[in-house]
Amino acid sequence: CQHWNRKRLRQTYISAVRRLHNTSMDDSLKAIQKDRQKIMREGCEMKRSQFRTLSPNQWERVYKHIVVNDKHKALYCYVPKAGCSNWMKVLKTLDGHDAFPGCDSLVHSRDVKLLHTYSMEEKLHRLQTYYKFAFVREPMGRLLSAYMDKLHPNGSTNIYHRTIGKQIVKRYRPNHAAADVDVHGDDVTWSEFLQYVSELNRRDVNEHWAPYDDLCQPCVINYDFIGHYENLNDEANYVIRQIGGGGRVAYPPRQNHYHPSSQQTVEDMFRALSSTVRRRILAIYANSYDLFHYERPDFLTGIVKKKIAQLHS
To answer: Which distant-in-sequence residues (6+ apart) come within 8 Å of 13 by Cβ?
Structure first.
């Protein structure tokens, strides 16, 4: 029955997307959001034992990931690698600022207000009365994007090479483990990165590849809108209209040189990994699929299905 309901909801979602061409954009996006919210509620109910209570550390992590815009009474849970930097630009522009911090420098910016800086009474007031939203993307596509940007040899962030990259090289290359071996961490392979992620304690996962439920806790915080990166322009501009920014600012279009990895590229990269690593990765990001209205990909679930079939053969 549950499988049939999820299938029916996805069919409704597809139908709603098609109605974008026949009805107003806002009405269509409201219908899509209604389906996402329903799947979210059902998933949270099924997994309620995981989210019944949050530890102080879990609350603190969420508070540090929620950007506050008091002028427009909005709370944005930022998810790196899902349009975060452009959302910072939008929110700062709405506040009358030209400069904006990227997501990596967000914590150190004096111009950005994060929810953890408010008193408990102020936090509760904003969580109860402000418009709350977050944007996510297909989890494995985001994971590959994080690797390519932060740890790939041609990546743009040297600080990640010097810190996490060094850790990975020393952990997974026996001849590099000695303290006197000079390690730069700028040649981490995709396989090494995924093995590293698959063995991490959830509390230690870097925000650029942390699961969405860890960053935003949607089963505890009732978001008004959960956006998808795959339909970013339409959905982001819808949110801007909802918080009173329509006509004043638009979500920046993707730059011409930006080309996200195709689904086939993502699939090929994952199929090259061992089945053990893929099973672990699926376990870590299961909620990111189930709660946020993404279909678990065959290149991950196929391994699990094969394992189950072997057990029953």
So the answer is: 32, 35, 36, 293
